[in-house]
Design a protein that fits this description.
single chain, 716 residues, alpha/beta, 6-stranded mixed sheet, 5-stranded mixed sheet, 23 helices, 27 strands, binds 1-deoxynojirimycin
Length: 716
């Protein structure tokens, strides 16, 4: 809590009744016409601390009405003018990857490996959302995930803890800025703390089994990134870890989150997660749920009214102390002060540059898309080419906006067909369906210069409570690719997918392949930018693309097996499974460009440093020349991975520890500098203690996690 609010908070606390204090810990959702009066009555009594600006647990999957600023201003006016102490209400909404202007789904934005663009996107998002009464958004979602079947993998940052922490920082900075109290900034919320992405079998809401060693090294770093960047709120996760629900765990919510990671802000429970403790079998009554959650460290109760119903008697019978209540209330009030609610409680919409936000979204979308294959330089296409555009996503709009999207408009989202038609002087004929008996689409395919297949998965197959048992596109679409292939024409596949789908057959059949994700309002324009070379692809995979769902989990930063069967790295793959090849089809960090980059040798300032000097801030510094030897000006993401050869615990074969996305003109060379310091070379012991151990490290620098280019350093 910032010092300067302490006095004001204390003086407010001194005036508040217990009931009013508990009201600050209560977050109902937006009322419907049926319960509006009862809701306003609660506001009037000071029993609504915050409002969840949507209806239903899986709001991102359900259409919601648009926001009425007047209505939220009316709630605010009632709180300020009629409640006992006039404390303003905090309005929170799931503005996950865009408000009016929709940006790519978070997993796609991560693929840009461009923290400046991510920050800029969230800056725009904050500006648009704050203009419609939103003070607080429930993002960034930082659930590391190794299972593409999980529908919510699309909301996160993929399989890498370091990349997750870089993205977390960029999102928090973009949303909150230097001063979240400014009227066009909003509060960030790092969620879902912790382990939700490890849900067994990718089945949403299921149990997780995570050792402390794995927790500290894989799952927590992104949260640490968000907290270090100043995230003022955290949302707790639905799941348990090894039988301990997070919502009732003092260990996870207080000892680790606050005492170890240093978080000082507000913790909100996920939707109904407090009363869910009964279903999870650790509480016998609603009162148990409330006391367990508050005592564990949940400050704000989302939607289920457990706190409002139970805390007063729990204080009276001594199961919850006044001090615990006051601590939680202070955190809520502190966030309200930080967000400027006491100074400017009402929303006064302002003009903003919508066209510029659309341009930013287009730039972000183009940088997010990953070129997976481009045989014989099929792409970029000539603008005069005759194109047969076929497939279920040719005229689709809503799916381009992705899941967890409440406020973007389908009608403001150009589809691929109309965009393509506007961009070429050739003819574009299109068939939307996958119905292969359609003679017309086969005829178009036969006569066109090139076939563009618009494939993918529907937005309704992704997001919360939308797990699938096989992470793939439907068979009918694979059949469509086969039929297109049979025409003998060149095929460009454009995959509008949320999750990383199994790719083997699709990639084998297509001549060129773009992973276009669900990329928001400007997805179609961005695809055309890439198809015609107006942008050069520069996205890189934040997750491994698999040959088969049967290989789940498969991720790059695994530890070495005792026998020589590290299948990710192609070591004796036949000994992994006797019936299939378990190597990744496309590895983490992979992505092509239209140009070609040649890497020079790695130069290091010093091959060895003493541990003591590292602690005192000295760094290993690596320099490498990057030559653009192709025909296009382009961006490349230079990635640095480490491997700690021998440590007291087994360490991953490769771990991303630094990267830089650089723009190099064709024919030019750029010298890229990457550094490694104390905070990059260590790991967490199962106790949570961070350690850097002396010894040798392999350093790999290159274009993806399988790069063979390496050098060696030693910590003495
Ligand atoms: C449940 C989801 O898990 C969470 O991410 C979201 O923020 C809340 N519902 C509120 O809609």
């Amino acid at each position: 809590m910032k010092k300067n609010y302490e006095k004001q908070i204390d003086s407010l606390l001194a005036k508040m009744s217990l009931q009013e204090k508990i009201g600050q810990l209560n977050q109902p959702e937006t009322p419907t016409a049926d319960n509006e009066e009862a809701f306003m009555d609660l506001v009037r009594k000071g029993l609504v601390g915050s409002v969840l600006m949507s209806v239903g647990a899986t709001a991102g999957n359900d259409p919601q009405g648009s926001i009425s600023v007047d209505f939220y201003n009316r709630i605010q006016k009632t709180a300020i003018e009629e409640s006992p102490n006039g404390i303003p209400v905090l309005f929170g909404r799931d503005v996950i990857h865009g408000h009016k202007t929709v940006f790519p789904i978070p997993l796609a934005m991560t693929a840009s490996f461009n923290e400046e663009l991510i920050e800029q996107s969230y800056r725009d998002i904050a500006q648009e959302a704050s203009n419609e009464s939103v003070h607080w958004t429930f993002t960034p979602m930082l659930d590391l995930c190794h299972d593409p079947r999980w529908g919510r993998i699309i909301e996160g940052t993929g399989e890498d803890p370091y990349l997750g922490s870089v993205v977390a920082k960029a999102v928090v900075k973009g949303l909150q800025g230097e001063n979240v109290g400014e009227s066009d900034r909003i509060l960030a919320c790092a969620k879902h703390y912790i382990g939700y992405g490890a849900s067994e079998g990718g089945r949403d809401y299921h149990r997780t089994e995570i050792s402390d060693y794995t927790l500290f090294n894989y799952y927590l770093p992104a949260f640490k990134g968000a907290i270090d960047a100043g995230a003022l709120t955290v949302m707790s996760a639905f799941n348990d870890i090894s039988g301990q629900p997070i919502t009732s765990s003092r260990r996870y919510l207080t000892e680790i989150l606050r005492d170890k990671l240093g978080f000082q802000g507000l913790v909100v429970a996920d939707y109904d997660a407090v009363c869910q403790l009964e279903r999870q079998g650790v509480a016998e009554s609603e009162a148990d749920c409330a006391s367990m959650a508050l005592n564990a460290g949940i400050d704000l109760d989302m939607h289920d009214f457990c706190y409002l119903n139970e805390l007063e008697s729990l204080v009276e019978n001594g199961k919850v102390s006044m001090e615990t209540i006051d601590t939680a209330v202070k955190r809520v009030l502190s966030v309200k002060f930080e967000a400027g609610l006491f100074d400017t409680p009402y929303c006064v919409p302002k003009d903003y540059d919508k066209a510029q936000h659309r341009l930013h979204s287009r730039e972000m979308a183009a940088e997010s898309m990953v070129l997976l294959k481009n045989e014989n330089h099929l792409l970029p296409l000539q603008k005069s080419a005759d194109i047969a555009l076929v497939g279920p996503f040719a005229t689709e709009r809503r799916t381009l906006l992705g899941s967890w999207m409440l406020d973007g408009k389908e009608r403001e989202t150009p589809n691929l067909l109309e965009t393509l038609r506007g961009r070429t002087s050739g003819t574009v004929e299109s068939s939307n369906g996958t119905d292969l008996s359609l003679d017309r689409s086969l005829r178009w395919m036969t006569h066109a210069d090139v076939i563009v297949l618009a494939l993918g998965e529907k937005w309704t197959d992704t997001g919360e409570s939308r797990a699938v048992s096989t992470a793939s596109i439907p068979n009918s679409q694979i059949e469509l690719i086969r039929r297109a292939k049979a025409t003998g024409k060149k095929i460009v596949g454009v995959l509008f997918c949320g999750r990383p789908v199994v790719i083997e057959e699709i990639a084998d059949l297509c001549d060129a392949l773009i992973y276009a994700w669900h990329s928001g309002s400007e997805a179609a324009n961005a695809v055309c930018d890439l198809l015609f070379g107006d942008s050069v692809p520069s996205g890189r995979l934040p997750v491994t693309l698999l040959r088969s769902s049967n290989h789940i989990p498969l991720y790059y930063n695994v530890t070495s097996s005792g026998r020589p069967v590290n299948c990710y790295y192609g070591e004796n793959p036949g000994e992994c499974y006797v019936d299939s090849l378990p190597t990744p089809y496309y590895p983490f960090g992979y992505g092509l460009s239209y140009t070609e980059f040649a890497y020079g040798d790695i130069c290091c300032n010093t091959p060895q440093l003493r541990l003591e000097d590292l602690k005192n801030g000295q760094k290993f510094r690596f320099e490498i020349d990057l030559h653009n030897v192709g025909d296009f000006d382009a961006k490349e993401t230079v990635q640095l991975y480490i491997h700690d050869r021998a440590a007291s615990m087994m360490r991953p074969l490769r771990e991303l520890k630094a990267f830089q996305k650089v723009f190099v003109k064709r024919g030019e060379t750029c010298r890229v500098v990457l550094e490694l310091g104390f905070e990059d070379l260590g790991f967490y012991l199962p106790s949570g203690e961070y350690t850097v151990e002396a010894g040798k490290f392999d350093i790999y620098i290159g274009e993806n996690c399988l790069t063979p280019r390496k050098t060696e350093i030693s910590v003495l």
